[in-house]
Structure to design on (454 residues):
């Protein structure tokens, strides 16, 4: 018994002495080949997992709007790379290692490299205005296919709370009125659009005898149900109206739930409005195309301040829809981002012609946010600093109402207003666009633009 007691410590010491020494990979002076081989695979895995999310509610498309200390998902363990690995690699080579970083979670990108890509910290330069490039789908994938792979509702989480509002404000986009407000001309304009009468569809779910039943049906409905039943009764389709014979709307093009991949967004998330309207390229003459060409470039491979999708330029209307439990502030944030890009396009165009004072504090775009019971209409306008030509962007509330108020008295308010935007405001807006494009010099170059900082 005593002998056994004496032997146990000896066995323990013997086992402890035979335990191999632990070697940490962070102390390995040799470059980590495993790390370099695994990084592209991890990038591919991350991209595939993002595109396989279910189509439920707009989720976080990219996580750069969130603080870095918030986890967005589990990542596989891997050996850490020695700092010496990166000192031997040039910045150009480091950028080449991550060819798909434009679509990668920035937090994961930071874990795989010591520095942020230049595009995360450098503003757009004037040369970017003329020849900007964009991320291209790998293996020849089309933009239509890529757009279909992105969950319909991802991205809304990035518009939640005060953090996104602060991010927009840091970019010069404010979800409220400016202290200066809009011009008297713009005020009179939108009041006229509210008051002008339009015929409404005689047979629809807003028909007087079935209106209350319609409201009950969508009371607890999903976003898809709200869109299906009432969205086109709030924001009518421009192309449908044109198809039924309204020739005034011939120059218009619309998109439904499509990423604005041809735009230059304020944040790292592309706008993806539920519905948007702008102009076809065919709305402009051959000479006007030639003057815009340096700033639009190849619509397949390049981005532009003037484009939304590859077939919509100078957008002026967006609509965002929420489900019965959705917060319209989220929709307002989405619209503010999208319509700031629309107003910014006008500012940059008028600056090229030296006529930016003509649009200072003028409403240049509209947005509609709605759910199953409430509608909010906004006008969007720039405020220009006349000393440094810098522009900031604001929203003016035009109308807010409940669809079912006073037994549905207001139900057609938004429909009539948008019809008036199409048929009364849009032709004047298009003529203004054509006029300023005609005023552009034919040999305009980077040194003539003076567009930095706006």
């Amino acid at each position: 018994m005593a002998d056994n007691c004496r032997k146990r410590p000896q066995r323990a010491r013997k086992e402890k002495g035979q335990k191999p020494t632990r070697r940490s990979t962070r102390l390995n002076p040799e470059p980590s080949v495993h790390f370099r081989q695994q990084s592209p695979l991890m990038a591919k895995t991350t991209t595939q997992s993002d595109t396989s999310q279910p189509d439920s509610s707009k989720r976080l498309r990219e996580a750069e709007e969130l603080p870095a200390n918030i986890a967005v998902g589990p990542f596989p363990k891997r050996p850490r790379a020695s700092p010496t690995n990166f000192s031997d690699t040039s910045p150009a080579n480091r950028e080449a290692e991550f060819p798909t970083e434009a679509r990668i979670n920035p937090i994961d990108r930071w874990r795989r490299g010591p520095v942020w890509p230049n595009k995360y910290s450098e503003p757009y330069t004037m040369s970017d205005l003329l020849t900007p490039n964009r991320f291209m789908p790998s293996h020849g994938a089309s933009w239509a296919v890529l757009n279909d792979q992105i969950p319909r509702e991802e991205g809304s989480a990035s518009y939640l709370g005060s953090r996104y509002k602060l991010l927009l404000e840091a970019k010069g986009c404010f979800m409220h009125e400016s202290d200066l407000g809009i011009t008297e001309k713009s005020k009179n304009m939108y009041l006229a659009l509210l008051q002008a009468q339009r015929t409404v569809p005689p047979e629809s779910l807003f028909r007087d005898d079935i209106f209350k039943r319609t409201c009950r049906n969508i009371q607890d409905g999903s976003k898809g149900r709200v869109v299906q039943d009432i969205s086109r009764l709030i924001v009518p389709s421009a192309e449908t109206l044109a198809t039924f014979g309204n020739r005034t709307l011939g120059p218009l093009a619309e998109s439904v739930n499509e990423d604005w991949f041809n735009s230059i967004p304020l944040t790292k998330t592309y706008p993806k409005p539920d519905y948007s309207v702008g102009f076809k390229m065919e709305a402009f003459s051959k000479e006007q195309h030639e003057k815009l060409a340096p700033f639009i470039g190849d619509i397949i491979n390049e981005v532009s301040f003037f484009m939304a999708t590859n077939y919509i330029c100078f957008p002026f209307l967006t609509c965002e829809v929420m489900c019965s439990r959705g917060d319209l502030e989220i929709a307002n944030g989405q619209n503010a981002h999208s319509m700031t890009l629309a107003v910014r396009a006008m500012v940059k165009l008028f600056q090229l012609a030296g006529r930016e004072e003509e649009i200072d504090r003028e409403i240049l775009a509209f947005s509609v946010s709605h759910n199953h019971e409430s509608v909010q209409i906004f006008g969007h306008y720039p405020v220009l600093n006349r000393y440094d030509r810098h522009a900031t962007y604001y929203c003016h509330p035009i109308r807010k109402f409940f669809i079912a108020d006073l037994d549905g008295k207001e139900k057609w308010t938004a429909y009539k207003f948008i019809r008036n935007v199409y048929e009364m405001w849009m032709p004047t807006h298009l003529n203004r666009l054509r006029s300023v494009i005609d005023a552009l010099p034919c040999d305009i170059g980077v040194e003539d633009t003076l567009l930095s900082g706006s």
